[in-house]
Amino acid sequence: MRLMRTGSFLALALTAGLLTTGFILPARSASDPLKAAREALNRKDYDSALERLDAIIKTSPGEASAYELRAVVQSYRGRPEEALADFDRLIGLGTGRDRPDLLRRISLGLLADLLSHDQEVVRGAAVTALAELGPSDARPPLIGAFGDPSPRVRSLAIQTAGRLGWAASIPSVRNAVGDPEASVRIAALSALGLSKDPTAVPLVRRGLTDQDPIAQLVAHEALVRLTQAQPVRPLLEAARDFSPAVRGAAMGILGRLKEPSALPVLTMGLHDPDGSVRSFAAGALGDLGNPSAIPALMEALSDEDPYARNFAAASLGRLKARVAVSALWGVVKDSDAHVRVAAAEALIRLGEGEAALVLRGLLKDPDFGVRSAAVGAIARTAPARATAFALEAFDDPAPRVRVAAVQALGRIGGKTALPYLRRALLDKDPTVRAFSAGHLGSLTAGRNRKTED
Q: Which of 79, 233, 297, 448 has its CA 20 to 30 A from that of 131?
């Protein structure tokens, strides 16, 4: 994830996020200053809205509706401090404590503002976090992200649409199979394949002749998912292609499709001369789910490439390979810290709860990527212990680790997470604020996402 046009999507977001949730109060006279402030907000004239609301509150400091509306205005201005201050004033008036809907609207406003950020990584974080809000709130701001100048952000927007089940129903996603950037075309083909919508078949077939060989493979995968009649032989042949990138991509696809005939090809891939291909093969064997691969994966734990060792360890955990417990305990002493994370996570999946101590030790690793991975691993495998890990990582100096902490708390959910997610809305790093807004919006909507395997 690494300016966005402020078009009509903000107006649409306001309509979806305010009007449909009953936020707009019954119409008053045209001279009503609160009504004028609402109209200014709907026009995205935040300064005028704020000026009117400040005047109302100055003369009527007990006007709860003005604080509520001002909190939303401040969120769309990208001012979480002011938005939450008004939320707290509502609590003081006795009307805010039971208003999770307002926290959700504040979260939506903050994400809408971050979608216009000048940094690609921030817009990417915001568009990814939109998926947490759910269909009722995420669609309007997401529409604008499909036109982002960054291929990375457009790809992430397509992935978010796929996660929410909209890929085949959004023209921008369907049209993205012709995007000039291969990464965007690949994202669109993949999302359309997962949509299970037969109307996407003609669009996906175009990908079979794409100039990018990886896009061709993804189109083939999508057609298998859409029709269940597409032969897998081209994928098996691609797994032997001269290009390491093509071989690795083909192996990854065969694993995701759980193609039984791919076992020999994937097992052979563990001995490929290219380390990246061996890594793809190791990960694909975990996706395939065939326990016959366990001996070969145990052998791959000693591969010279740390990525191959990493994926081999992870796949052994996913395959519930109890026979590999002793070997994995040896791997938690690997020279590569990321491999140690993968081995500890696999051991926890296999019932070796004490491996959580390995992950706790890795929270002190000098590499922020390792610290982040350790938080994510414990959140996926041991939610009961994850809260303590997440809170310990909440003040980490690296934004990436704080993002991992926010995501862990979002997965865990519950009342314990809410105050910490709210606090993270004030983080100095905008990517942390983005993910916090997404998870806070999800929890306040009752969409507590369970830990993903």
A: 79
